[in-house]
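User: Can you fold this complex?
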Amino acid sequence: MSGQSSLASVPDHASGKSLAGQTRWRGLVSFAQIGVAFVALLLLGSYLSPDFASAGNFRNLLNQTSILGVLALAQFLVVLIGGFDLSVAAVLALSSVIVAAEAPHVGFGLAGLAAILAGLVLGAVSGVASTVGRVPPMIATLGVAGIARGLAFVVTLKSLLVPIAITNPLQVTLGVFTTTTMAWLALTVVIALMLEFTVTGRRLYAIGGNERASRLAGIPVTRLKIATYSVAGGLSALGGVLFVIRSSSGVPHVGAGWELESIAGIVIGGTQLFGGEGNVIEAMLGVLIYQMISNLMNLVAINPYYQDIVQAAVIVAVVGASALRAGWKGKRT
Amino acid sequence: MGLIYISHRLEEVLRIGDRVTVLRDGAHVVTRPGAGMTQHDLIEAMVGRKLMAPVKTGAPPTGDDVLRVSGLTRRSEFEDVTFAVREGEVLGLGGLVVAGRSELLETIFGARKADAGTIWISGRDVRIACPEDAIRAGVGLVPEERRASGVLLNRSVADNLSLAVIDHLGSGFGLDLKRMRALVAKQIANLSIKTPSPEALAGQLSGGKQQKIVIGKWLAAKVKVLLLDEPTRGVDVNAKSEIYRLVADLAKSGAAIVVASSELPELLAITDRILVLAQGRQTAVLETAKTNEVEVMRYAFAGAKPLAAA
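Assistant: Here's the predicted assembly.
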């Protein structure tokens, strides 16, 4: 029996070395891929437009990316556990009008808290509907998006301006970093640490990887999924708060298409579309890359309609490529 | 018109068939006229695989009951199942594939809701409504579908091994990575899982190693009761005997073990007693040392009355 045993383990041993190498390098390789794409785009940008590689444009680019970035953080968490959140943009819009309507009366802080609370509740609704209610996440979050968008228009039909005196003290710029950029980066770091170094973080990856096995290992799957949707709603609402800080206005119709753009961004950043795999920092680099493409098209003055077409094509292409890759992997393992 | 009638209900086969054919492991065993054939003849033709040397030897343990199940029922799946497993004992769960073995194990583990019945762990009446309750009570389950329900293919060996105990590895806000690594290293050594690194993806290892990881997850959780559902399906011969060894060692350390298996030679080699289910009803509890394949099969085909649908 021992003779047989050593024979049988030969193939595994033979591949053992390369396997270990693969594992060690896996993280670095995926990071390098995104890094290369990022640098290539930087070089292309500098070549195409003299304005691209300037501190002013970088500040602008980061500032533009930041709010989509916060939505993408929400999206990342939900995609990680095997769902989708099509309500991020509508919740952002609702939050922005709540803040804009209430900040003059109750102060910015309290208005912001109320908006975030609304986001947490709406997110929890998506979570409960998609777990306990067994509604597919796409449908559940689309429904919540409709509710949030409707509520936003109940608050105001037209954009609400916020007195500059309220938002001005909140608009801080340090080098190329604006308030919203700093908030986005700080949140990214917090979520990255949470995912890597906490019990909850490991469990979220496990749920996305194999929900049934996670359940059978004693992970409170339903509770964690509802909490994740809720946090995603809160993050989306925080995006709305940042939107008001940036633009001094609440806009009920803002964010058309941002839910898809947030998905495209994190998928460019290597996030597995069907859950369980992805690195939040790479995902945010993906969002930045996505935003750089549109920034570049603006700088070289491409017709906005063509820009829409290019962006839509990018979304379909990256999501399609990701789905294909997942399919191949499914067949291989 | 010619008719081929396939069934595991032996009396049906004998009543309907002019001629009866028995297949075993995909090979033809016998074809005979149905008239004059008895159920016993059919069963004899169906068994007869090579027996294995017993892994579990010695008299059945006589210690305290660790797991006791009374009147456990899940409508249309199984009914009124009652048994006890002692400290250090391995109880086999035999019967046909449709007998309700997996459903029974999953219900004890809380992955399915029982309609009636009581479960005691170490003499304490426990309410198990979900897997978390079961794990808290010291029960682990190695599920039937390893790839779909047992192992996280796209997570590392370390993540898989620490999955069931990860909530005890916290230190304030974060994970105690040092303790986690120590725990993982200990299990890899204990189970001699040949993995290139604890960080290798479980999906890149062989089926046998994956199964050892799933079992190791419960060893790390120090379970008192381990339920295994077809633990050697789809693993190679060597991994099989290693898994038998693991089960025997775990029993020796005082755990109570329940193994469901479709492979009779396996049940006869690794268990102390065998509980036989037939269409959701418990038809016998046999002492392994005093039984044989034919007897187990006879009980597996007994109790022909099907459960009423819910």
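Chain A is about 80% helix and 0% strand. The beta strands of chain A are 160-161, 173-174, 177-178, 249-250.
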